[in-house]
Amino acid sequence: MNNGKRSSLKIEEFYKKTKELLKLKSVINKTPRSRKIGKFSSSKSFHSVKTWGKREIQYLEKLSANKRREFLKKSLEDNPSCLVLTDSLTFFPEIKNEAKNRRLALFSSELTRRRFQEKANKFFLSLDSGEITISGELLQIFGLGVLIMGDSGIGKSESALELLTRGHPFVSDDVVRIKKAANKGILIGMSPALSRYFMEIRGLGLINIKEIFGSKIVLKQTKIDLAIDLKKWQQEKEYDRIGLKFAEDYVILGEKIPQLNIPVAPGRNIATLIEVACKVHILRRKGYRAPEEIIRKLNRALSHPYKLKERKRE
Q1: Which of 2, 32, 295, 304 is the residue whose CA sits 20 to 30 A from 313?
Q2: Antiparallel, parallel or unpaired: β 255-257 and 221-223
Q3: Nearest to 110 by CA among 138, 137, 96, 90
């Protein structure tokens, strides 16, 4: 690559791709995330990501409120896209206020500053190399390569285990290596060599899928056709119950992958929901959409009110 060339992506994409890898938590919900974040290939460090650790916070603690604001203005005058506080440290109110004024994204990480910088640098280097590592599960379901993502502890591994017991080939657990194929627009997912065939299940520890279920249930790699994001169910949130709204495509290495979001609540069979989501995606590719069909039926019924009344009487 030429010196000065920059690999970049939107802050929203950066957060989605690295929230588990870098143990990130968003601090300000309404932060504009369309701003770009990236790394200059001529530099050893990533650009537009400012990281602070214990040293900076301990220094801020010693300052008065006015001195603290002066320090923040000077430290952030290079206008980074986001500020990450490592070591699970807490942001001062002055930092949040300055971030809002500068439209700066704030994230906290439980990693140490050194560990965070190492992992983040590797992540940006992977963008340059045409390969990336993402946290999630990868299986082949009904012939589709499906990348299953979601928050830690939401049940990704358990769902993947149930899916493979139903006969869907397993590729990778927890960490998925993704690279571009020679053909434009095709992404290939695989397991890192070290963890290939292994899965971590809470209460059982590490299990070897190949030894338990046989070699026919495992694949070394698969093309990625669909991304499914498991999200925790929020009582106060209104969900699309018909299916007219489509989630934005998931962008990996500059390529767009269709994405479906599945809210997860106690009692929901996640594996079955994932199977149905795959069937829905297959039908959509063929041009069939159930919500559009029910709307057509409703429109026909409303255009013939007398027939509708007769049906109600029946």
Answers
A1: 295
A2: unpaired
A3: 90
Dihedral sign computed on CA atoms, order 257, 16, 247, 104: negative
Domain match, 37 and 177 both: no
pLDDT tens for residues 158-184?
Answer: 999 999 999 999 999 999 999 988 766
| Positive/negative CA dihedral, 87, 90, 92, 98 | positive
In angstroms, how far is the first alpha carbon of the chain from the final one?
Answer: 72
238 and 179 in a common domain: yes
> What distance in Å separates the CA atoms of residue 118 and residue 66, rounded to the nearest whole number?
34
Looking at the fold, whether 144 and 212 belong to one and the same domain comes out as yes
Q: Tokens standing for 153?
A: 């502890």
Return the number of other C-beta atoms located less than 10 Å from residue 137's C-beta.
28
Question: Can you point out the beta strands (E) in 210-280?
Answer: 221-223, 226-232, 250-252, 255-257, 259-264
Helix (H) / strand (E) element for 95: namely: helix 93-102
Strand partners, 179: 131, 188
Query: How many beta carbons lie within 10 A of that of residue 270, not counting itself?
Result: 22
pLDDT in tens, 69-123: 899 988 888 888 889 999 999 888 888 888 888 888 899 999 999 888 888 877 7
What span, in angstroms and rounded, lies between the C-alpha atoms of 228 and 137? 10
* CA–CA gap between residue 38 and residue 26 (Å, rounded): 18
Burial of 313 from C-beta contacts in 10 A (0-12 / 13-18 / 19+): exposed
Q: How many domains does the chain have?
A: 2
